[in-house]
Amino acid sequence: MKMLYIFIITIPMLFFGSVQGYAQPKECPVLSELEKTSIKDKKEVIEALNTLIPNTYGNGLDDFPDIYTKWKVVTAKPFPKTVGNKDEEDYFGMAKTFCGKEIAERSWLVRLDFPKAPGANLAQGQIFLAKSKEKGWFVWFQYH
Question: Which of 61, 70, 54, 76 is nearest to 126 (CA)?
Answer without folding.
Answer: 76
